[in-house]
Amino acid sequence: MQTKSYIILSSFFIFLLACAKPSKIDQTSTGSIDPKAKSIAMSTMEAMGGQEKWDKLHYVSWTFFGNRHLVWDKLGGMVRIEIPKDTSIYLLDLQKMTGKVMRSGKVLTDADKVQEELNKAKGMWINDSYWLFMPFKLMDNGVNLQYLREDTTLKGSPASVLQLTFNAVGNTPENKYEVYVEKDNLIKQWAYFKSDTQTEPPRIWPWDNYKSFDGLLLSSERSDKSGPSNVKVYNKLDETVFTSFNKFSFY
Predict the structure, then answer these.
(1) Contacts of 37 (CB under 8 A, 6+ apart)
(2) Residue 75: Cβ-neighbour burial (10 angstroms; 0-12, 13-18, 19+)
(3) What are the extents of the domains in the chain?
(4) Which option is the CATH number for 26-242: 1.10.260, 1.10.150, 2.50.20, 1.10.10?
(5) What is the pLDDT of residues 43-97, one digit of tens each?
(6) Residue-by-residue DSSP string for the chain
(7) Backbone phi, then psi, for 233, in 5-degree steps?
């Protein structure tokens, strides 16, 4: 898949993971959810390890589309993003929106430029983490979740299809998504619609090759070579990972 394939999704993802701390699965005060969709969504989250495992996830690193590397302190709200092709490193406090930036091997010192780059970094983190953690975001505030039908994936496997639309939130609330949940309660495919009036999705991606990371099932190294890869979780990391431009071995 070309890199541009996931750029179209970025503006929508800006609100989906806007907070560094995880949200509870029953948080639906600004959205709506039908009972069957809720049951399937909760079964999906349980199959992936459950709310408790998700809440306890502390540190995780991954590579996104082979283009950039991320290390996320989920509980502390910090992220490190490295882009090897232009020797860039972003060190960002997601809650305070403060941090440091290195571009092309040079540390930025202009305050306005640093803030501009930190805002870009947050957008990268939101987009890239959604590609890894979307199943835990099915019942977030502003998400309308609806059971649509029984169908089959592109691989021919039977699946229940849930539709995600959005209640006047985000930069592109007109977007729509369909996720395919197979009988093992895991999402195995997702489809993107630019508008909720579209009947055919411009893109469909697999969400497969789940692996256990300390009891948390995550989809990486997908069959179409898209999205996240090289996923690792950690119980402890030195805080300088998120404050220093020193080199660390994660990838």
Answers:
(1) 145, 146, 147, 162
(2) middle
(3) 26-242
(4) 2.50.20
(5) 999 999 999 999 999 999 999 999 999 999 999 999 999 999 999 999 999 999 9
(6) --THHHHTTHHHHHHHT-SSSPPPTT--TTS-B-HHHHHHHHHHHHHTTHHHHHHH--EEEEEETTTEEEEEETTTTEEEEEEGGGTEEEEEETTTTEEEEEETTEE---HHHHHHHHHHHHHHHHHHHHHHHGGGGTT-TTEEEEEEEEEE-TTS-EEEEEEEEESS-SS-TT-EEEEEE-TTS-EEEEEEESSTT-SS-SEEEE---EEEETTEEEE-S-TTS-SEEEEEEES---GGGGT--S-----
(7) -120, 155
Give the pLDDT score at 25: 39
Stated pTM of the model = 0.86
Nearest to 32 by CA among 215, 209, 169, 170: 169
Long-range contacts, stretch 107-113, CB < 8 angstroms, 24+ apart? 107/245
User: pLDDT by residue (tens digit) across 115-160?
Assistant: 999 999 999 998 899 899 999 989 988 899 999 999 999 999 999 9
pLDDT over threshold 50, residue 210: yes
How many whole angstroms separate alpha carbon 46 and alpha carbon 66? 29
Structure tokens at 174: 């007109």
Q: Which residue has the higher pLDDT, 22 or 10?
A: 10
Q: How far is CA 223 from CA 1, 68, 97, 208, 239, in A?
A: 11, 19, 35, 7, 34
Q: What is the pLDDT of residue 194?
A: 87
